[in-house]
Specification:
Structural class: mainly beta
Radius of gyration: 13 Å
Distance between the termini: 37 Å
Largest sheet: 7 strands, mixed
Oligomer: single chain
Number of strands: 11
Helix content: under 10%
């Protein structure tokens, strides 16, 4: 599975951005697609995930109510709509893929930088 993330940029606090992650290769309806982020000097952290088939979603507490993960099966693309952005959301965002049976994400996109100015 190959992943291509895009959509990052510079935005003011309170603004919005939408990240996209296009997937190619073998995927299954039971696969998980996730978004992670890594801020300068910090470890990478989980942001959100979605199951291809049923669309069940999961979020870290700090983004609940502000971020929405979704997928377009026809386009094999996962999105992360980010609203009410805060300076602490500044990070490189990565999309990732894992099998339903696997506890770890094995495939990663190249990352896209999101900078939120105060």
């Amino acid at each position: 599975v190959q992943l291509q993330a895009s959509g990052g940029g510079l935005v003011q606090a309170g603004g919005s951005l939408r990240l996209s992650c296009a997937a190619s290769g073998r995927t299954s309806n039971t696969d998980f697609m996730g978004w992670f982020r890594q801020a300068p000097g910090k470890e990478r952290e989980f942001v959100a995930s979605i199951i291809w088939s049923g669309g069940r979603t999961y979020y870290t507490n700090s983004v609940k109510g502000r971020f929405t993960i979704s997928r377009d099966i026809a386009k094999n693309t996962v999105y992360l709509q980010m609203n009410s952005l805060k300076p602490e959301d500044t990070a490189v965002y990565y999309c990732a893929h894992r099998l339903y049976s696997d506890s770890q994400y094995r495939h990663w996109g190249q990352g896209t930088l999101v900078t939120v100015s105060s």
